[in-house]
Amino acid sequence: MAIECDVAIIGGGPAGSTAGSILKKYRPDLKVCIFEREKFPRDHVGESQLPLISALLYEMGVWDKVEAAGFPIKIGATYRWGSSDDLWDFEFFPAKLFKDEERPAKFEGQRRQTAFQVDRAIYDEILLDHAESLGCDVYQETGVKKIDSEDDMVTKLTLSNGEEVKAKYYLDGSGHVGALRRAVGVGITEPSSLKNVSFWDYWQNAEWAVEIGTGATRVQVMSLGWGWLWFIPLGPTRTSIGLVLPAAQYKKMGMKPEELYRKAIEEEPNIKALTENASCEGKFGSTKDWSFVADRGYGKNWMLIGESFGFADPVLAAGLCLAQYSAREAAYTILAQEAGEIDDAWLKESYANLQIQRVSQHIRFADLWYSANGKFTDLKEYTRDIAKDAGMELNAEEAFRWLGTGGFVDDGFGFSGTAGFSLFSVKEMTEMLTDEKTDLKLVTNNVFKLNIAGAEEIELPTYSDGKVTKIRAYRKGEKVLPMNWLNSVIVRILRDDSKVQRIMANVQRAAKESGIVPDTALLLQLEGIEAMIRDGWIKASYNKNRPKFDFSFIQSDLIHFNEDTEDLHV
Question: Greater confidence, 411 or 195?
């Protein structure tokens, strides 16, 4: 007899377990089966997270379990990258403000703005066990051998043990393998000329470059003349160290992967120093990091999630964020389909459009990072081609404008920015990479008028509390303005007045009334106004007869030259 269920999930990694947990949290009556070909625990790369993950782990009910595992707290990263040989930091939460606290800690205060650096052997098992504890039927060491489909509908799965599975819905969380994606004939698009390979291993007893409070640190991203190294502490004694370089450069160097890996560590003085007294585990791994996005993400009864849908270069540490959020939103889509209150086609199309947009933005941002890296002395032609393919001049203003091609106000995470990073962070990173400044439109103008006339009204989804809700949005060409809380407040304020003094008085009042920490709410609204100007929803101008507003308080300590970690080899 076939295994029959409501939802069959191929793959028990973070995407599959996230989808299973969300489904069972909000609809415990659904029968959800997860089929994982390997036996957990097992090692996997992709260990560095973004803070957005923490809120999702909390929603899943697994944040406390992950925190109890004692993974290092990631407050950001230290880079040798761009036009300078100096080290510089990008921090989610300023190290100088980080307060020491006992662990395990609660998901509150500063921990809402930090992330984890996770040992995937432990992390993935925690997530899969959690999904099982919520009622998912988990089958480990049970791969999917065959996928039958007809008329864009999956009819059954055949497992490695010969059993068959029939479900109402199917989710492909099989990662790069894309088992279901390939079975139904969905192609992929590679929007970037960036084609990298990665080599990695794990080390015992490597030193941390810096320890901040109890268990907090930064990952290290160190550019070489021909590639770059990651250094990610995974626990008190274990560290992941990996090498990324273009596939063409790897072939040109003519060395075996292990030899090239050792050469990279030997040539990077900081990481060499950190591993001086460490021992390598000898679990050498390799993969190709081809950035891609699936040509479509759903069929009549199936959806792609995680890396089956798309993959962006690891330089931005976004892999887990993209994978787990896509799984969350796919689960929400199924929940809404089951509720039967919203059209199925609209739900799935909205889901797929959001994932394509997100992955594409990350790929675009990764291209900027590589093309701006002055350290790649052997790869000048290569990085020049990236910029040329993107139609981008490598200066701050042009790069910032190019990053906003898909829009700054519609990132799908409820704030203004791109690729999961806030607008002001994107601006600062762009300036650091290009070694040039770009002015905020908010600062150089003092008259702001709405420019919504003539826009088409559409509907977009929001995903919250187990339900998909439609919200109103405006569309002009490729740019979309969703009427979420943030943008609705800005539109209401600008409809009342266009003068910067009164606008700011109303913005500050709205920030206090928001229920969010006032300083945070104010920053979100100012980023929102800047994003709407950049995307053309607000016309900004300067009137010399009107006063300007002092925006000098818009300062960030998140990106700066490194101050607490001197070069270790000096």
Answer: 195
